[in-house]
């Protein structure tokens, strides 16, 4: 069932902090307001990496909802964040815009993996999605964003709606990679220079990276018959892109890229969160 506009909105905020204490990456800060929560931290690969599952109990974003997520990783700490399921942005009968902002801040020699499951934007969504990553010298980051416009499996396209999306990486106050997209009823959805009629667009960014790592990803990742995959290097930022028709296929493709990148960038074998198997 589609959600409709409502008179009130959810305003939710969560702030999480990670720090290293005696070789253990700990969740040292946790505060929240409104319907954003986390499960208890997990350590499936030992004390060096803290796995956290970010929860949004209402199950979806509607109309003029406001969600703000702040993550801070202290020096030499390592956090991995994901979600237990897809994020859902429902249609609105109003012209008000929902907003989800995510600010990820890493101190020197800190590591963060930002791996949420896909976002599903229902037809009629009006939404602003911003992810900003602030890095310091020596910090390491792997993160992705998987956006599904409409629900192709249910026969729903994105003929109406508006999604304004930004994904930014900064280091020491200098921009490394800035992406800004506007998805609406314009030509971008079907044009050869846009989404080419494909409803799923996904991006993975990784830093630091070099040319041999790009070649390794290009040679090892295949998007399948229904998808397109590309990897490019901008200075020391590796950008992987997927374009296709299926959110699960996009996540599988980016997961394979993450499994290739993690040992080289973070010095650890891939350890997929258990929630991905449920």
- The average pLDDT is 91
Uncertain runs are: 1-7
What share of the residues lie within helices? 10-25%
Largest sheet: number of strands, sense, barrel closure: 10 strands, mixed
Calculate the terminal CA-CA distance, rounded to whole Å: 23 Å
User: What gyration radius follows from the Cα positions, in whole Å?
Assistant: 18 Å
Strand content: 35-45%
Shape designation: globular
Summed up, the domain count is: 1
What can you tell me about this protein's structure?
The chain is mainly β. It has one domain. It contains two helices and 17 strands. Strands 3, 4, 6, 7, 9, 10, 12, 15, 16 and 17 form a ten-stranded mixed beta sheet that branches. Strands 2-1-5-8-11-13-14 form a seven-stranded mixed beta sheet, with no helix packed on it. A hairpin with a 2-residue loop joins strand 13 and strand 14. The longest helix has 20 residues. The chain is globular. The N terminus is likely disordered.
Nutshell version of this structure?
This protein has 278 residues and is mainly β. Helices cover 11% and strands 45% of the residues. The protein contains two helices and 17 strands.
């Amino acid at each position: 069932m589609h959600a409709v506009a409502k008179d009130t909105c959810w305003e939710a905020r969560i702030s999480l902090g990670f720090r290293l204490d005696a070789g253990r990456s700990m969740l040292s800060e946790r505060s929240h307001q409104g319907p954003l929560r986390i499960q208890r931290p997990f350590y499936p690969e030992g004390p060096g990496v803290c796995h956290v599952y970010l929860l949004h109990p209402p199950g979806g974003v509607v109309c003029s909802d406001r969600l703000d997520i702040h993550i801070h990783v202290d020096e030499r700490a390592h956090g991995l964040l994901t979600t237990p399921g897809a994020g859902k942005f429902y249609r609105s009968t109003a012209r008000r815009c929902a907003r989800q902002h995510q600010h990820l801040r890493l101190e020197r020699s800190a590591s963060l993996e930002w791996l949420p499951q896909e976002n599903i934007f229902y037809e009629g969504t009006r939404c602003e999605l911003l992810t900003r990553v602030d890095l310091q010298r020596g910090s390491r980051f792997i993160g992705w964003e998987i956006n599904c416009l409409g629900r192709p499996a249910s026969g729903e396209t994105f003929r109406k709606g508006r999604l304004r999306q930004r994904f930014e990486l900064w280091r020491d106050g200098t921009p490394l990679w800035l992406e800004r997209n506007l998805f609406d009823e314009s030509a971008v959805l079907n044009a050869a220079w846009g989404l080419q009629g494909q409803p799923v667009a996904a991006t993975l960014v990784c830093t630091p990276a070099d040319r041999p790592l790009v070649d390794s990803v290009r040679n090892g990742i295949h998007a399948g018959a229904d998808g397109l995959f590309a990897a490019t290097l901008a200075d020391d930022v590796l950008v992987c892109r997927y374009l296709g028709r299926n959110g699960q296929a996009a996540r599988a493709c980016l997961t394979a890229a993450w499994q290739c990148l993690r040992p080289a960038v973070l010095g650890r074998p891939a350890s997929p969160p258990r929630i991905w198997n449920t």
